[in-house]
């Protein structure tokens, strides 16, 4: 059986990456795509990279019709707008992978504090599986709705969670310093992502108030089983894609070698997580679904470095990995 996939929000960057990955997937096919602005065109007209390879028409969103055509829908909308659409799609009986942050957190109070809006479907906050198959594959397999992880959180949770779970580092002294390519900000026009703003420049943003800070802390706590506090600072860098996170932790009588050993044991059966001896760079994982991470002793700290591609393991590759789990395929199929 071929898995029939639909994309909502087909004009964006993550949608393009889903379509690109589906072209190489042996068990799944893109059958429908929707957009508010580009109804009546085709996905190849909007994304010329796909010309001659993918001629799916773009239609306006009708949840009932999409549910009839699809086994799973990739909902590639911004947070806020996404929850409402996910609710309608799930009500129509189709399985949904939500790319936004709307269902990732454990509780409504934290969501409304950090996102500044009322949640349209609060019953599903805290009862939607977080789409990180490295830890939640069993729940993902059964799910009607999967909350695909945030890009920065993926780069921090994978290195940190096993170290907290095994009590190898101090839980209240963690600094996550991340750099992202500009595609992380999406395709819609914003002054902050104009060429002259980002070219030849690196800037911090969201200092002390970025909404991925509670997501990282929440998930590391849930997986690690103890309360943590962390400080997260993102930076925008003049690259198309990629995230590099440098994470400063305080060891509890261990060295970097024990961190590497812990990761290798934890992720022995996780095909996309690689503890590597070299210091990872975004180029090492570009266009792939891999996470590379490494650890170094540095005075009274250990420094962890992780690299992912924000559009692949940070979004669309992770969604395909989740889809594979939901439909009983190997996690690596098509990736
Ligand atoms: N870019 C990345 O690296 C990552 C993105 N994500 C998340 O994935 C989702 C998609 O991201 P990305 O593809 O980059 O975003 P884009 O901005 O590139 O695309 C989002 C699409 O959603 C549609 N849209 C925008 N606003 C609304 C709205 N108010 N109501 C309905 N539809 C709307 C637009 O399509 P149209 O106007 O044609 O309808 C747009 O093309 C977001 O939630 C993002 O936060 C998660 C991890 C990484
Ligand atoms: C570079 C850049 O702007 N990155 C985005 C995060 C990427 C993302 O899409 O996060 P969500 O899925 O949680 O929305 C940001 O900082 O908001």
TrEMBL record:
Tell me the ranges covered by the Semialdehyde dehydrogenase NAD-binding domain, including all copies.
Answer: 4-143
Q: Name one GO cellular component term.
A: cytoplasm
GO MF: N-acetyl-gamma-glutamyl-phosphate reductase activity; NAD binding; NADP+ binding
Q: Does the keyword Amino-acid biosynthesis apply?
A: yes
Keyword Cytoplasm assigned: yes
Query: InterPro entries, per this entry?
Result: AGPR, AGPR_AS, AGPR_dimerisation_dom, AGPR_type-1, NAD(P)-bd_dom_sf, Semialdehyde_DH_NAD-bd
E.C. number(s) listed in UniProt = 1.2.1.38
Which UniProt key words apply to this protein? Answer: Amino-acid biosynthesis, Arginine biosynthesis, Cytoplasm, NADP, Oxidoreductase
What are the BP-aspect GO terms? Answer: L-arginine biosynthetic process
Which transformation does this protein catalyse, written as a reaction? N-acetyl-L-glutamate 5-semialdehyde + phosphate + NADP(+) = N-acetyl-L-glutamyl 5-phosphate + NADPH + H(+)
Q: Which family does it belong to?
A: Belongs to the NAGSA dehydrogenase family. Type 1 subfamily.
Name this polypeptide is given: N-acetyl-gamma-glutamyl-phosphate reductase
Q: Name its species.
A: Novipirellula galeiformis
């Amino acid at each position: 059986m071929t898995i029939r996939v639909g994309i909502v929000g087909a004009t964006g960057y993550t949608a393009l990456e889903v379509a690109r990955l589906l072209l190489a997937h042996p068990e799944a096919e893109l059958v429908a795509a929707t957009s508010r602005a580009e109804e009546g065109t085709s996905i190849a007209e909007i994304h010329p990279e796909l010309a001659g390879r993918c001629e799916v028409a773009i239609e306006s969103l009708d949840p009932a019709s999409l549910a009839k055509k699809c086994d799973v829908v990739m909902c590639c909308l911004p947070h806020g707008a996404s929850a409402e659409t996910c609710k309608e799609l799930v009500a129509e009986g189709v399985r949904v992978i939500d790319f936004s942050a709307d269902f990732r957190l454990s509780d409504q109070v934290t969501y409304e504090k950090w996102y500044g809006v009322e949640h349209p479907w609060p019953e599903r906050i805290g009862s939607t599986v977080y789409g990180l198959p490295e830890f939640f594959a069993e729940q993902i397999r059964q799910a009607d709705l999967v909350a695909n992880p945030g890009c920065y959180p993926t780069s921090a949770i994978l290195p940190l969670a096993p170290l907290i779970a095994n009590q190898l580092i101090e839980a209240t002294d963690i600094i996550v310093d991340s750099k992202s390519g500009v595609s992380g900000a999406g395709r819609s026009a914003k002054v902050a992502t104009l060429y002259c703003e980002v070219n030849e420049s690196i800037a911090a943003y969201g200092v002390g108030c970025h909404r991925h800070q509670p997501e990282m802390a929440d998930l590391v706590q849930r997986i690690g089983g103890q309360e943590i506090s962390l400080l997260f600072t993102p930076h925008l860098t003049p690259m198309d894609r990629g995230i590099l996170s440098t994470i400063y932790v305080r060891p509890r009588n261990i060295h970097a070698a024990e961190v590497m050993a812990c990761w290798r044991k934890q992720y022995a059966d996780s095909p996309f997580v690689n503890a590597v001896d070299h210091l990872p760079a975004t180029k090492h994982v570009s266009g792939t679904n891999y996470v590379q991470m490494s650890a170094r002793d540095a005075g009274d700290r250990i420094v962890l470095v992780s690299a992912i591609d924000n559009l692949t393991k940070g979004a669309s590759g992770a969604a395909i990995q989740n889809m594979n789990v939901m439909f009983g395929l190997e996690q690596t199929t098509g990736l």
